[in-house]
Amino acid sequence: MSKSKNRAETTDWILVVVIAALLVFGMMALYSVTLSTYIADSFFTRQLGWIGAGLLVGLVTYLVPYTVWEKFATPLMALTLILLALTLLFAKSGLGGVVADDGLGGQPRHLGTILGIGNSGQPGVLARLVAVIYIAAWLASKGDQLSKVLLGLLPFGVILGLVGGFVVLQPDLSTAFLIVVTGIAMFYFAGGDPIQIVLSGLVSAGTFVFLALNLSYARARLEGYMDAWSDPAKMPYHVQRAIEAISQGGILGVGFGAGRMKFGYLPVAHTDSIFAVVAEELGLVGCLFLIGLFALLAFRGYRIALATPDPFGSLVAFGVTTMILSEALVNILVMLGIFPPTGTALPFFSYGGTAMVITLGGLGLVLGISRGRPKGDWDAILDRWWGDGRARVPGARRRSRVA
Fold first, then answer.
1. pLDDT of residue 192
2. Would 81 be classed as within a structural domain?
3. Which of 365, 286, 352, 289 minimizes the C-alpha distance to 323?
């Protein structure tokens, strides 16, 4: 038995410690934000409740053998698309309208507005994890067919386009962007042709630019970002305040809880801008510690992906890790003024119930994969119950080229 295989058959407890550290750090940052009279302290207690729910979901995804999720990839995707359609037809945006009052633009619709329970439940966020599971199952079933345009790239593009299109209509262009980025990265990791990947990346980039120019809220963000390159004074207000907060933090920061920018100067300090709050209060040292935790999460997650011999498990571990890191990277780049404002949250730190539950649920799945394939007759039982004649994903079952 190889050394890497031995590593993959033991729960990655270092990753557990990293997750715990991110949760504690994130809650400390959110608590500091609630010290402002502009942010209700109920956000802190609500987030604790969402963490509890997320840990429960994570425990379930950890304990249930990960091969089970491969069997149900198609039903999960179908259910997610139905939820996206229902939200699109009947739900309202998070702020009761299409345009937010924070200067950032469109807000996605929430499923909770249909049920009368307020601004909760974003199917677009759920679609990110379900897309990872479905794409992993689909890629694992293709094997060498990935190099063929008609059997690999073309149907893969249809899958991404369908999911991303539903999410764009919410409207939630940033989440759709993250889904596409994660999907393309998984296609590459599975052994997709590099030339096809570059072409698909260019097509995806062109598509998002086209959408950004034709969606009013996205166009305003993009135009503000482009104008700032010629005249920094035209930088969007949100980004200006974030950079000001970061610059005031210096090396060591002004002290935990002592930040000034969260008192009404920094828009949505408890969600999109919470990195700027950390930077102001804990300085460069705090930012490097935060980035270091995400880097360690990346190392452990990708290590599990590379050490897992099963194609589906390897792709899911890679996809979930990429899903979380891409969101964190975009959020930080926006706060630094390097990337156009997107409304993307910072995982573990930004307030948000659906995002927290999905993040912890996905990491529970990664930890379950780190234990290796389930022992016993799980696969045989599921195959008999599910029926050999019902294909879980399109195409014949083949081993992928993932090592």
1. 72
2. yes
3. 365
Q: How many domains, the chain?
A: 1
Tell whether 392 is covered by a domain. Answer: no
Asked whether residue 385 is assigned to any structural domain, the reply reads no
Q: What are the Cα distances from residue 211, in Å, to 171, 182, 214, 217, 219?
A: 11, 19, 5, 10, 8
- Please say whether the beta carbons of 135 and 129 come within 8 A: no
> Which long-range contacts link 155-164 to residues 24+ away (Cβ below 8 Å)?
155/394, 156/183, 156/187, 156/192, 156/200, 157/200, 157/203, 159/134, 159/135, 159/183, 160/131, 160/135, 160/184, 160/204, 162/81, 163/77, 163/80, 163/81, 163/127, 163/131
Q: Count the Cβ atoms, other than its own, within 10 Å of residue 155.
A: 16
Do the domain assignments include residue 216? yes
Lowest average pLDDT, out of 53-57, 157-161, 293-297, 302-306, goes to 157-161
pTM: 0.82
pLDDT at 249 over 80: yes
Could you tell me which residues come within 8 angstroms of residue 60 by beta carbon, excluding any fewer than 6 positions away? 361, 364
- Check: CB of residue 234 under 8 Å from CB of residue 227: yes
